[in-house]
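Inputs:
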Amino acid sequence: MDKTQWNERIKLIEAALLKELGAETALVPRLAESMEYSLMAGGKRLRPILVMAAADAVGARGTDFVQAACGIEMIHTYSLIHDDLPAMDNDDYRRGKLTNHKVFGEALAILAGDALLTQAFEVILRQQGVPAQVLLEVLREMSIAAGPNGMVGGQVIDMLSEGKRISMEELRKMHMGKTGALFRAAIRSGAILGGASEAQLAALTTYADCFGLAFQITDDILDVVGDEAVIGKPVGSDERNEKSTYVTLTSLDEAKKLAADTVQQALEALEIFGDEAKFLRDLVKMLLERNK
Amino acid sequence: MDKTQWNERIKLIEAALLKELGAETALVPRLAESMEYSLMAGGKRLRPILVMAAADAVGARGTDFVQAACGIEMIHTYSLIHDDLPAMDNDDYRRGKLTNHKVFGEALAILAGDALLTQAFEVILRQQGVPAQVLLEVLREMSIAAGPNGMVGGQVIDMLSEGKRISMEELRKMHMGKTGALFRAAIRSGAILGGASEAQLAALTTYADCFGLAFQITDDILDVVGDEAVIGKPVGSDERNEKSTYVTLTSLDEAKKLAADTVQQALEALEIFGDEAKFLRDLVKMLLERNK
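Outputs:
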């Protein structure tokens, strides 16, 4: 895994995010502050990194699409702010920092989320250097992924199944919406922006779905074996909250095996690519070594 | 005012909205129910009507743009759901019906709002019969109007100025965001979709800003002189909540005069148009006779 390249890209993304915030939110400084608090709270920037890596994989230059990449990070951040709200997961901490509503109050947290989601589309719309038709396709990917049949739908399923034991099939459906859809949109958007062929797009979609699944399984594993100080939230919360996860529905060992198999499938999907997909390969392999 | 035409268009819009909901939310029926509850709660459908009327004014056929018109109604509806939340205005009733969170709970109300906002973009993206570049422009109008420098920004200013006496200048800025921006986006989008010239777009933008202002002033007047049974919410709430309004900052008579002057300005902006703008003229004049 080329950590240098990753860190360089994180810097690029974060500089672009700050620029977007500065340009857009001068009207109401308190709102800008709340948006920035969550948007600049660190994190792996995995979704924008995936946008760029997918573009690289199809032979384009990933860094040309930092604008669209920023948009997806804003959508991701809005979803975290709303998920943490008292009416939802009621979390006080996120990545070791107080959650948005703990700092800015519930009303402003709701509005900062709304603002980030809306501005995300504006930011994507300012992506340069691609035909209008391509930009429309990317916006379509993003809006479908984030909407009622994607991220929001998954969140509702999660909410409605709290305290219930759900089947492996329902668990998959929930995560396909809650986290999978946005990973898929990130990777497909990068591919579309980079001018992917049909075959490349199909291969990357398979990769994306495996990536999302492996991400979720390893997330569930981390909740059992993770180091609180490193992941920034208490471990064992899934078991305490009687949440169905890939670990609670099977076992730790089986979950680890499923994660490894899924990563293997993701790698197989990339077989049609050469060295341009090295970063994507490294990224999915890295999931098996996650410590946060 | 041609009420027949209005009612026909409302039917067209509502049929399209129902179709969008059905197609999109099958995954999670409870979420679909919550979205539909608020989206189909009636209302004047003023924003989609304005999209179509603006397209008519520039010589296009307004009904061709029902798709984009639906998108803006979904954005408007999301904003009402979130505004009513306990953490925000904490309203129990809207248009004489229980608010979304009173029926579906706070978490689902937040998520239904999020889903409507996101799906709005998807719905607009499915607008047919316009060049890709035009659709991108419309999406830009909508995302800027609904975002941190528009609707959400106005809502934050409103929240932060609660219980304070603000200046007429601040009041204008707040409403320009909170309600004005979306009226502007509706009218400009309709004009852009209809192929407006620069001069037509400029005239309709002036009309839009006057329309938004007159709408707000007459809204403030209604809060004083309205009939509770007709407007579907208690009158006199602005005074009780010590809200700054066009009435409390001036007087009922002055507010009425300002409304009439603003409507006159809107009509003057339409002077470059012929009969195609009759509906827009009727619409703004109707504001002076609002009873809800």
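Remarks. Chain A has one domain: 3-289. The mean pLDDT of chain A is 93.
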